[in-house]
User: Which sequence fits this backbone?
């Protein structure tokens, strides 16, 4: 169905053909052939096929815009899989072309690659899967870690996302499903509270108990937190770094920043939908969405794919731009600073010191060869090709709907107090002779 070119005209012709009693006078050959092949169902809001609506080419931008503001992932494959799960009529190229035109998506794009990496240490991807062995973690192993929430400081005066200072992030090792809870203090007592919520939510979702928890040697995971784990029969596994959880931390924070600061939504909306985005992102490790994995599948064991790595990966070529035709954004000085050690892409909207890409889109005016790469003149400065981001088409500006202003309350009418009747006997009668007013100068 997704290979078909679905337009408003085609949908209107099919509906007219069916309602006319399959009359040849009300249809053409293309309409009849398409209907006889797919046999769609007619509903009030259009055509449906296998329980999903058919989205026409004219409706695709509106549908994607609404999905971006909710639970649709922002990666090309993730967005395509998410959309196909809910409706028909999407092409992978169309989806990614729309995403690349969104301004907030462009301004938040990560640093482009500069050098090609070699796999000198690991020959296989997913080395942490060894923790799923029964002798170690088991099939219901969960990794946990804390992530820092950007705050309001003197150097970064923009308001904080929320009152929480940390996020307690837990990732199911087998399928990358993520749980997240807010923390106001980095203590073992606060971590224990989050652990209780995690055990309850895991039980409700999979109807299974957590076999083990993989964690680092942070003080927030000791004392009360560690004691409660042992009390519940959960095996703690200590590692130097829970790297697969930190990857999910980055994904979660980027999604929250996109909705919270890029589009202007409130924290509750941003947090809920950001969590839905990463749990709805297509995972090539298991070839399905993490949110689609059931407790039965988790207990039986999930097969993992794409775990082989090349020692010398395919060399990525640097992009080439056309002078006078292509428009680009360039990296800012703060994003190219070699001293930026704790650089985080989800801080792209918080302050001018942390912006990554230029707000303005510039044309390329000149080009020259330097070494094995090209340099391009943009806004009066020369940039390497890996310091530029191509902008195609018109930039799309998305923002959260503005809250309607509360209507001013009508002022209540003044209460009418009945005047008391004057008793003539109580009226004071003075005997003093009053002087007549004298106006001087007259």
Assistant:
């Amino acid at each position: 169905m997704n290979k078909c070119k679905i337009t408003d005209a085609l949908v209107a012709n099919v509906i007219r053909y069916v309602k006319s009693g399959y009359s040849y006078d009300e249809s053409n050959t293309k309409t009849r052939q398409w209907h006889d092949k797919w046999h769609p169902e007619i509903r009030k809001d259009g055509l449906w096929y296998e329980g999903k609506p058919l989205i026409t080419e004219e409706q695709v931008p509106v549908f994607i815009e609404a999905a971006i503001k909710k639970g649709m992932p922002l990666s090309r494959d993730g967005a395509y899989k998410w959309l196909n799960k809910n409706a028909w009529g999407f092409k992978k190229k169309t989806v990614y072309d729309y995403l690349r035109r969104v301004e907030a998506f462009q301004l938040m794009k990560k640093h482009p690659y500069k050098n090609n990496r070699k796999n000198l240490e690991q020959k296989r991807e997913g080395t942490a899967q060894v923790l799923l062995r029964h002798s170690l973690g088991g099939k219901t192993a969960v990794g946990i870690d804390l992530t820092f929430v950007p705050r309001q400081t003197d150097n970064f005066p923009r308001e904080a996302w929320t009152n929480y200072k940390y996020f307690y992030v837990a990732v199911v090792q087998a399928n990358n499903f993520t749980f997240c809870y807010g923390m106001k203090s980095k203590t073992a007592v606060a971590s224990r509270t989050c652990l209780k919520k995690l055990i309850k939510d895991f039980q409700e979702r999979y109807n299974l108990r957590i076999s083990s928890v993989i964690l680092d040697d942070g003080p927030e995971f000791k004392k009360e937190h560690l004691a409660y784990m042992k009390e519940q029969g959960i095996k703690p596994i200590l590692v130097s770094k829970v790297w697969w959880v930190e990857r999910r931390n980055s994904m979660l924070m980027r999604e929250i920043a996109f909705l919270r600061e890029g589009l202007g939504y409130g924290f509750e909306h941003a947090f809920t939908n950001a969590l839905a985005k990463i749990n709805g992102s297509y995972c090539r490790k298991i070839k399905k969405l993490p949110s689609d994995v059931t407790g039965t599948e988790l207990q039986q064991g999930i097969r993992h794919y794409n775990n082989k790595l090349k020692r010398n990966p395919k060399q990525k070529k640097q992009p080439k731009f056309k002078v006078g035709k292509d428009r680009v954004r360039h990296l800012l000085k703060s994003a190219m600073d070699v001293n930026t050690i704790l650089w985080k892409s989800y801080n792209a909207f918080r302050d001018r010191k942390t912006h990554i890409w230029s707000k303005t889109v510039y044309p390329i005016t000149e080009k020259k060869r330097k070494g094995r790469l090209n340099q391009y003149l943009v806004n009066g400065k020369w940039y390497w090709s890996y310091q530029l981001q191509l902008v195609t088409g018109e930039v799309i500006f998305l923002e959260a709907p503005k809250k309607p202003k509360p209507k001013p309350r009508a002022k209540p009418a003044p209460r009418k107090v009945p005047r008391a009747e004057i008793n003539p006997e109580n009226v004071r009668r003075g005997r003093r002779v009053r002087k007549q007013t004298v106006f001087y100068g007259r």
Residues 243-262 form the longest helix (20 residues).
